[in-house]
Amino acid sequence: MRVLFQPFAAATHVAAQVPLAWALRVAGHEVRVATQPDAVEDITRAGLTAVPVGDPLHVAAKMNPDDAHLVDELRDDAWLRVLDPGEIRPERLTPEYLHGVFATWTPLVHRNTVPDRMIDDLVEFAADWRPDLVVWDTMTYAGPVAARACGAAHARLMFGLDLVGLLRERYRAILDRLPAELRDDPLEEWLGHVLERHGHSQDLGFDEELVLGQWTIDPVPTSLSLPLAHPRVPVRYVPYNGPATVPADLDDPPQRRRICLTLGVSFREVVGEDQASVGELLAAVADLDVEVVATLNAEQLAALGPLPPNVRAVDFVPLNELLPSCGAIIHHGGAGTFLTALAHGVPQIVVPARMWCNTPRAERARAAGIALTCPPEQLTAARLRAMVTRVLEDGSFARNAARVRAEMLATPTPGELVPTLERLTAAHRSAARRGGS
Questions:
Q1: How many Å is the Cα radius of gyration of the chain?
Q2: What fold characterizes domain 248-409?
Q3: How far is CA 29 from CA 107, 173, 337, 424, in A?
Q4: Of 66, 356, 390, 420, which sits with the fewest C-beta atoms within 10 Å of its C-beta?
């Protein structure tokens, strides 16, 4: 079959789709990956075939202080503190709050990152190439529109917690209790107009499949995922960090307990800066009897003085290669970092950046006994030092992390999932499409 992947145009989102894309390729299926030109190089460096659609997204530029497009709304995150999609506490999910989230995120984020030109190009490509299955990123809705337009089956491939699924279930339950004339769904209004523009308003109008997919492929361990009614297909998380070279001496057994310190690349890639203070992080570990490998780039290092003697800075190292030698990791809460640490059974100290599901993910990890967490604005060197010491000395963190790792290892790999995807694709393709295939 033909499978079209459609990631958000950022390197970390492409990386989340590479293992499954290659599993399908190895199984003999045709695979292409379509997104805005920003991420084409990341796709081709992974050995996959890229299809550029739409104009460059330039997410980082949109967040730049010199750019007037989204600066006022997105860099000043007062609205995000009030209408944070990562807010999942039941008592906070009132009708007014849920409506505010969708009313804010739909125009400011979704419509800006999935513009008409990009959707139109993807729909045109899908009409020509005729994929059987479209696998799309939960942050971009061009994928389900293209699938609906060409009659393909389609599924979301998650990179983190299914916040959209949770919020949509709660929001739709509220809307369904209202008379039709009082229902106001900003996401339905936008996607409904998009479908109408492509001639599908009558027979193939809006439904929740356009928001949640026909099913969801989820690499988050079931014990840490959000409980949802939507069909969920678990898959084992396989770390992919892109092309990299591992410094030779990192393979040497550490002389002291080793800690990885990283703030990832996704937040800097999108927003252009870190939320946590690198200086505070380094001060916290300076006098501990540990070896710290810190992934810091030149810009981060330029803002610091001399590094503590027990800290070694590397610009980039694939976490999949570094973490097996680590007793703990300090990080920003990003999905790839979090899942890679789980894959190696490494206890975590999370200082979550305010982006998507970093905070609720950190809280679920804390509740599972595999991590300690502290918001960036409350971080002090003393507090972080106490957390690091506790994680290293309390063996329950390592035992709980090993338990989650065992759960991940028992989950089907991307290769083992291929027959399931073949079966689901055959069952979900539109009747009209099946008749013409």
A1: 22
A2: Rossmann fold (3.40.50)
A3: 36, 39, 29, 15
A4: 66
